[in-house]
Amino acid sequence: MTFNLNKIPVQPERVAVVTGANVGLGYETAKVLAEKEFTVILACRNLDKANKAISRIKKLNPQAKLQSLRLDLCSNKSVLEFAPAFAQNYDRLDLLINNAGVMMPPYDTTEDGLESQMAANYFGHFLLTSLLLPTLEQTKDSGIVALSSLAHAWGDINFQDINSQKRYNARQVYGQSKLACLMFTYELARKLESKNYQTSSLAAHPGVTITEIGRNIPQLLVGLGHLISPFLFQKPDKGALPILRAALDPKAKNGEYYGPDGFRQYKGKPVKVSSDRDSRDESKAQKLWELTEDLLGIAFFK
Q: Which residues make Cβ contacts (< 8 Å) with residue 60, sequence separation at least 6?
């Protein structure tokens, strides 16, 4: 079934948080949600960049309801501070879009001892979702959308060395982080259903979209990517459509995964897609869940 953004009505009472909304897919997602009259919180590490993004959206849509709040997903302290800062101004949360991420940076660890790709892409969002879940659950028809990637099929979860203390391969760890996001989405969907929560957990991927996240890729490859991109890849506004369908399509259901419908899911219209076997392994997902809770020192469901 086709998805037409133009047929999605305005929703002026609803509130959305979009992580990493200052650029790329997050920016495009925030812009469309603002067009649908959501109040949109741009949750970003750099507030100056977030406020510049707000200015760009306001030039296109002067009536847009936007706020920036600082969120550094590589700092558990920052994530823990975000939730009460959000709660000071809002008593509802209709959409949590876990979009922010990094791709293949040099090896680094956070102040909490976590590998930086896993922290930014997965661990930080796990913690954030746990903190915001009570507000989501008290908001009717609320949803959580995680950003995964075709890269989720690049490998598996290295349970023995999840923070790459023994060996670091940037490409493999990026794939691991996106697999973790997808496994988290599916496991959260199962847990929400088993606990009779009304909140939904979905995931999306943008196909192959050149954005700022690729800044650590060698420039030669980026240049080649731009040359062939019109034929194989899509621009961020199109790459955001699977995220927006997961978030806004009233027929989207708990546990579903959305991506482009074209060749190898590189580009195309947003549709429900499948994922690889590891992502659907329930025993691995439960193991990852328990390991994540241990590493973060939390119980997800309070």
A: 31
